[in-house]
Amino acid sequence: MLLESLSATLLIVIIISLRLVFLVWKIHKERQTKRTVGTGQSELENASIMVVLGSGGHTKEMITFLEVVGKRFSPRYYVVAETDKFSIEKLTRLQQQRNDENHEIYKIPRSREVRQSYLSAVLTTIKAFICTVPIVMQKKPDILLCNGPGTCIPVCIACFLSRVFFVSNTKLVYVESICRVTTLSLSGKLLYNFADSFIVQWPDLVSKFPKANYIGRLM
Known about the structure:
By secondary structure, the protein is of the alpha/beta class. The protein is 48% helix and 15% strand. It has 2 domains: 1-34; 44-214, Rossmann fold (3-Layer(aba) Sandwich), CATH 3.40.50. Strands 3-2-1-4-5-6-7 form a 7-stranded parallel β-sheet, with helices on both faces. It is globular. Residues 36-42 have low confidence and may be disordered.
């Protein structure tokens, strides 16, 4: 009985690992042949989108980007850290200006507070991930858009795993902050090989990270 359980567990692990490898290969293959953002492809019209807002500069950049995108994506799900009042205020103001009610805002625990140690951040990130999973499972967004705040990591993990287990087919679009001129942020480095579209705003980054996509300044 124990041997059968171990064999079944091993088989499941192998299947999941193969699925993971296949997804990463597929993502890289598609990134070589097409661009998923900024080209007006019809496949993205009216797609549902989940947007992760960070704090401070990250939020300002994302709000600017959302102003350009307009109402192209619908419905829209916004994810913010529960202690991030700045982002909530900015987002509320934007939606009021648009007179737009076709959106929902979700608050999750912050992955890492300022000056928090990376070791303890692992635990808070796990907590944020656990809170994010039900949201992702319920909404199943077509696109996940983020630009580098630590809050995006658990959301990206949840969306990617939902894809691994055939729950959804969420495409991850990562826009590196305009502040990153010569190197990627920590979030960028973690997501570089998993994003369906990895966008940078400085051409020098493409020479160091050839799988990135430079399409000019977005902010």
